[in-house]
């Protein structure tokens, strides 16, 4: 029985691979993954994609519990739905695939709101903010993006800093990509790279290990973070937006936010060019 | 909404992917050369007169064969710099591949050496064959014949193992695939095609080695 | 390294063990089916399973995990990540074990199969009572060798973001910034799992060779 199932899967895969060999874009419809708040309630749990190694947003603490700003927001969201949250820790580059392939219902995964991403996923209203920075040891001289070319730079593969650094660095700069924030910082600390693209939270974490060594050299984009659902899923998108409005208006979010971010809750824009907050 | 397959971005990235294949083969080849050097050196030391050297080789083989390659390559890349040894990703990958393959090569080559029949060497001497002829016909060729299949399948395994070097940002097929995936979010399509490319590479290598085997190492037919 | 970090590593170890056991047990069941199909004498079935085995032996485990991980979800199966990672390891194991066991089924002397046929034993009896008991004995060293490969292979689940021993190691070394210590310890834990198995496999192999003399 198991055998027939595996060969069937095999055949299906071969079919998919065969399609690639035909050198033309190949379009095939698949079963719908669409999920509504009502379905989540009747299922009895909400599947949340989150980061597992990116404090203070989403990280697994040393006793194995999911913590951080995104985790707290997720718990509030689950409470709003009246079901428990089930976390799937995701690597940076796995976040969108995990959502589009139906592995999770929603992402609270430090997803920076970017126009190119808005083509792949549906963003909610923003709930957090961050600044993408360029980080290097203090003695390293970096005044403008043109100076970046002199150093070997590390970034987390598929992150916003990946895009920003790639765009800002002069052509020919050596950029090394790693599977997530942890190996990227490790690479800087062990001297495998001389600078990294990161965000405002990299420096405190890096300096925990080598006090007073690193600083932010350049600032790139100011970013807002939003929750993500699949494109075209109206009900759940409306539900998330109403939820975010509600916790901001009640002041609940304003109490939690500074606990993780060391900053008061910023004011969020009503719209961002190229990124619709609602299903149009 | 429905998921729609779209192989367009992957097709566009095909030239890059083929360069990635070249990177993969380059890493595998350099790794294998190092593995053979370690293998031959290890066999010599393994039968050394000094017990400490023998134990060093045995420990090396056991440690490498019983720990994951990802751990080994992380160790060389992230941990060794703390001890003052810093290597770039390509060199790290080659060394990790060579050390890993070397541990297996020691066992394979040792098996080949042990398969040489001492009686035949004596028979060769009795027949008055020159030393070089004895080495070529009685020692080298049978030993090569014995180890060739295992060594070549080890090489194919090493080629597949290079995909793990993407974790330290070495340039090879998997990391090229990941770069395309990052820009297009077409994970299944990208990894499907990348998998297919690995399959083609290992199939071609297998055919090539089979040819070499029948051409140079098969028993003479009378 | 403090106590919490050590406990976190051990939590990762638990997942490494779980993945290994699931992959091995389910892979063994499926692998037996693959081996039997591969030696069935039915030509299309033999060719299909040969292709199946070649597919898994000719591609990197990391890619197999990626394709299964994303592919299952696209095929409409909404599964927990650890379930789909387990399925990936199960498929991988079924192909490798299927090939190992095909070899040992064929290593059972033909005369015995013919004798069993002459006694008009059914296929099931022939396999269950004559061929498989011997084949399993012959295959044990290679089977254990593969189990070691599988345990080491579960470390690749880390690249997908699954918190088993290897990823637990990178997370902890990012907290205390002692990669030499933490990665060394992680490798030592893998060694503690794999080495006794390897030694047992070598011992079995030696015994088998001696018995065959």
UniProtKB/TrEMBL annotation, chain A:
Residues 45-264 form the Solute-binding protein family 3/N-terminal domain. It comes from the Bacteria. Keywords: Signal. InterPro entries: Solute-binding_3/MltF_N, TAT_signal. Residues 1-34 form the signal peptide. SMART domains: PBPb (SM00062). Pfam families: SBP_bac_3. The keyword GTP-binding does not apply. This is ABC transporter substrate-binding protein.
From TrEMBL, chain B:
The keyword Transmembrane helix applies. Keywords: Cell membrane, Membrane, Transmembrane, Transmembrane helix, Transport. Residues 21-209 form the ABC transmembrane type-1 domain. It is a multi-pass membrane protein. It comes from the Bacteria. It is found in: Cell inner membrane; Cell membrane. CDD domains: TM_PBP2. The chain crosses the membrane at residues 17-45, 66-85, 91-109, 146-168, 188-206. Pfam families: BPD_transp_1 (PF00528). InterPro entries: AA_ABC_transptr_permease_3TM, ArtM/GltK/GlnP/TcyL/YhdX-like, MetI-like, MetI-like_sf. Belongs to the binding-protein-dependent transport system permease family. HisMQ subfamily. This is ABC transporter permease. The lineage of its organism: Bacteria, Pseudomonadati, Pseudomonadota, Alphaproteobacteria, Hyphomicrobiales.
From TrEMBL, chain C:
It comes from the Bacteria. Its main location: membrane. The keyword Transferase does not apply. Keywords: Cell membrane, Membrane, Transmembrane, Transmembrane helix, Transport. Residues 13-198 form the ABC transmembrane type-1 domain. The chain crosses the membrane at residues 15-37, 49-70, 82-101, 135-160, 180-203. It is a multi-pass membrane protein. Belongs to the binding-protein-dependent transport system permease family. HisMQ subfamily. It is found in: Cell inner membrane; Cell membrane. This is ABC transporter permease.
